[in-house]
Design a protein that fits this description.
The chain is 6% helix and 25% strand. It is mainly beta.
Length: 242
């Protein structure tokens, strides 16, 4: 059942800043191999053609609005790591997804049922020293735009110093629609499928049915060393550059 509720401001900030501290860390530095990298997946045609004025990591509340988006509230967190298991700091993690009705923040990505005008649809977060990122969003839903059907998923992109390092997607582990998803079926490398399927679990102590999801991102490229300064921001998709 969808939840339309705004969590307490202090509680929301704590969860977003902590990055779902209760999630299990797997620190296996030195054991990562190339086959453990997060597989690349298509960006799709619905990266926002006009970014919202609010691009923070809370997709449920636009600016200072008192009306939250509709959906199952989900705290999404994880880390960005290199193939040696070392954290990647100062990397921009972007996410974008459909709202509870199945519409994207894109002119051609809206369904006949309309849109949830309170859903941000897109957010970004700069990873910390531990490579951590966090978002508050909704559990993704299935959608069909034209003849295109997709199982519930969230698009994810990672940029650093103006360079796009990875574009991928995360889907819900165990969702019955996964078997019919053509994009998911295109992943054929051994073990790669499991690396984009993420369990959505109840948030301990939540009285309104909030969820948590943890998506660890392992890059197959090693970003250039940097001195802590950010020399460039997010790399836009090729089709909308310039």
């Amino acid at each position: 059942m969808a939840v339309k509720c705004r969590a307490g401001l202090s509680n929301r900030r704590q969860l977003l800043q902590a990055g779902a501290a209760g999630g299990a860390f797997y620190t296996v530095a030195g054991l990562f191999a190339e086959e453990l990298t997060t597989p690349r997946m298509t960006e799709g045609p619905f990266y926002p053609d006009k970014l919202p004025l609010d691009t923070d990591n809370d997709l449920l509340v636009l600016n200072d609005s008192l009306t939250p988006a509709v959906g199952e509230i989900t705290y999404l967190s994880g880390r960005v790591l290199n193939v040696s298991g070392e954290p990647i700091r100062n990397a921009f993690v972007e996410i974008w997804q459909v709202d509870n009705l199945g519409s994207y923040l894109h002119t051609n990505g809206r369904v006949a049922k309309g849109t949830d005008s309170n859903f941000q649809g897109y957010g970004r977060f700069l990873t910390d020293l531990k490579g951590e990122y966090s978002f508050r969003t909704i559990k993704p839903v299935r959608y069909q735009v034209g003849n295109t059907f997709r199982a519930p998923h969230i698009h994810v992109a990672v940029s650093r110093n103006g360079q796009r390092l990875l574009t991928t997607q995360m889907l819900i582990a165990g969702d019955p629609d996964n078997d019919q998803d053509s994009v998911l079926k295109s992943i054929r490398a051994p073990g790669a499928l499991e690396r984009v399927l993420v369990p959505f679990k109840p948030l301990e102590g939540s009285k309104i049915g909030e969820l948590t999801a943890r998506f660890e991102i392992v890059l197959g490229v090693t970003p250039e060393e940097e001195d802590g300064k950010i020399r460039g921001g997010i790399s836009k998709p090729d089709r909308i550059r310039g």
